[in-house]
Fold this protein.
Amino acid sequence: MTERVRICALLAVCACCLGMGPVAAQGQTPGGGSPQNGSAPGTAAPGTAGQDEPALGQLPASPVDQQEQLIRQVDPLERAEEKKAREKAERDARKKANQDNLAIPGSIAESQQSAAQRSGPAVEDQDREAAVQEYTGPAVLSRSYSVNQSLVPEQIRWNETLGVSGVYDTGISRTFNADGSLGPATALTGALVSWSFSGRHYFRRDVVSVNYTGNYSQYSGNGAYSGSNQRISANYTHAITRRLRLSLDGSGSILSESSVLENQPVGPQTIANISLASSPNIQIFDVGSKQMSMQADLIWELTARLSFSAGTSYFGIERDSPLLLGVTGHQARGDVTYRLTRRTTVGAYYSFNHYLYPHGFGNSDTDTFGGIYSYAFNRTTQLRFRGGLSVVESLGLVTVAIPPALASLLGINEGIIDSYATYRTSDISAQFIKDFPHGRTASLAYARGISPGNGVYQTSQQETISGTLTARVLRSYTLTVGAGRDTLKAATLSVVENFGTYQSEYARLSLGRTYRRGVGASLTAEYRHFSLDTGGFLRNQLRITSGITWGSGTGKLWPF
């Protein structure tokens, strides 16, 4: 009996020792010391294994397991894997947020985001005065852009795109039959391959941006419309001081006969902010052309409210057809803007333009002056206006009737003489823009001014009105609806003064979707009606394109 009691007591003592072991281990550090003073109840001190306490019914970690856990905590390889996983999760969350908050191009929100970003090179000088504040009032129409000067998004990284589309087009010129009547209308079908490269890079005092686009079209049937179109523009900005900066721009294009069929839209800046005086952008005939322009501007921000700008530009265009006139011209311009209140900006502008046409066909000088006014009704609604007067003086060849007595001797009824003439017209640019909730933007633009013509007309008066509605649908789709009208008529006397007024109306519908890894799809339909006052020449165009594109997204810091 005594022996049996001894055995039972020994077993009870062993059981108690085993039950107290984990509790004692929890109260000691790996080195055998006691917990540090000041540790919160229920938490392990630094360097302890308290965070790996076993769950109820689970065996405690052995000394070997505890040692492996400590090694993993300080192992750089293990920490690198955790860092990569954490950075990937942050990138995915940031990318999703950017997609949700991406502003529609051309909207007020997009212009505000661009202004909030780094708008120029950083300049450090010894001037201890308060830094010039960023302009936060309503945007103004500068008319300092050309049609070929594509805008580069406000980003540092570079981006490349590649796309393939199918094309159906009925806009080719109708042929004439032997009896002089118009032949049947025909259509073209084909494929279009497009590519682009654009980006901007910031240096300490300089900013460099490049935008290049190109495409090649191959049509069935009449192969004359197959060809490539190339456009490139570049900008260099140098900060001379904190308030003075120099901007140099250059652009060029080599276009084939298919370029007129494409009917390239002006872009987010709208026609209201395009320099009509240096952008011959309305064409009649399906012929190729080569065009270049260079400009330099000096901007002086005297205060946060007052700024001055002065610049000059030179452009030239050569057309492939010997029957159409090319033109060269230069422009000198200047303007001043003052932010009157938080909602209102006012200013004034002046420009001088000179056009020279080859083979002695003529030349013209134009003086334009007027005022600038912009008003922000609220954070989502703005009115931008620029209006004045243009005075044109021209010298060109004009067809005149010969008196009957002299005509009977010469055998001709008409002759060509040099003629001097003056012409006055209004110079107007206006844009009303409204941002709606859920990524929707509406814009109405109007422009009227002097243009260098289109190869048939010389110095001309151009009038353009357009409306655009852009909306993001179902978060992944972008819907764009637009309509407009272009009018061009001769502003000076010339040998084609009776050719009539050119006019076209158009409507455009576009639907696009963006997928992962930079892949996108788009469908665009456009209808355009062309007309001339004389000759009964009518041409209606229906163009439908559908394709896919790929872009590198944010791109890489290349080539810098």
